[in-house]
Amino acid sequence: MAVSNPLETKVEQSMSNSQEWRVAVIGAGTISQRVHIPVFQKQPNTTVVAVCDVNAARAEAIAVETGVPNVYSDYEKMLAEMQPNITVVATPNIFHKPMATAALEAGSNVLCEKPVALTYADASEMFATAAARNLVLTVGTHFRFTAPMQAAKNHVNHGFFGRIYAARTVWQRRNGIPGYGSWFTNRDLAGGGALLDIGVHTLDRALYLMNYPQPARVTGVTFAEFGPRGRGLGGWGSDIAKPSANTRYDVDDLAWAQVIFADGTVLQFQVAWAANFPETFVTEIFGTEGGARIGGQDSVELYSMLNGLEVKTDTQLPAQKGGSYDQLIANFVRYLNGDTNADIVTPEQALVHVQIVDAITRSAAEGREVVL
Ligand SMILES: NC(=O)c1ccc[n+]([C@@H]2O[C@H](COP(=O)([O-])OP(=O)(O)OC[C@H]3O[C@@H](n4cnc5c(N)ncnc54)[C@H](O)[C@@H]3O)[C@@H](O)[C@H]2O)c1
Hints:
alpha/beta; Rossmann fold
């Protein structure tokens, strides 16, 4: 079976299309400063034309630092005046739906930060809006593009695992509650805690390798054992809010679940912003012919039988150009340029993330299995 190496095709392919991409960014926060603006600025035929933030000083400072020529504090005005054909939505989660919808209605493709929406119903409406206008709405779940994940996907495509019938996917931090006291830990603005924030990344890693089976039954639990006591605080977002005696924390900091799919396969899922346990970032695949443990940046262990003996193989990872978010944005631009082989987070995939998160939330609240 001839299967292309995703590490080569996704990164090296050059497109002949010369469409000019005008990128507008809503939210001049940590992620757009570190990732969206500099990475879009590296793409061919792509200019970041404007940045918008309700905090005008923050927007101005980032624009100066990155050389973005236009600054706004009202995103609707920016959309009307700049007429971008790509809009990045990188604001607190509650704003993703109205902002992405406004951008789509203004005729722009959208890269929306995760979680795309707080509920499955909202996400479905957003993707329907995109489809009705023939525009692309995709989501920043970039961990599928790490070198170990792409190597594992290559092994999936070559049939190494046989039939994948089970998987386990884990992202548990020792001390990693982001933005304690900011929108991150406020249910009205974030919609949830670890489950929404790192849960969608953690789901995408496993589902990508499992080829996105249809979820059928979900049982989940959530806890908030660290945040309410002011423990387990991490570095991300520590600049946007300082803890105080009245700090609001009403989101989860741990979620575990089991998802059973329509084809009978099973996924064990564990995320935590904080835990009395070593930092764990791993996705494990169980197949009829082989298994794998896929870690963070540098590890893919393969397990199989060879000549009747148990074998463990370490995959030597090819060098990758840029980080996983660089790959996500490069693929998005290539897809917009007409490359149907470009690997993007599709509407169907993004909807499955939210569907499972919704079901875990319901299962945890009602103390029962949720049938989808
Ligand atoms: N894909 C990833 O790996 C990744 C990593 C970090 C954050 N994120 C996501 O990115 C989003 C932003 O996270 P962050 O860490 O950059 O947060 P942040 O708080 O640093 O930045 C958010 C910015 O949005 C601005 N904002 C709020 N309301 C606005 C409005 N009405 N109009 C314009 N701007 C507004 C805020 O002033 C702030 O500057 C979140 O959804 C988060 O989940 C994704």
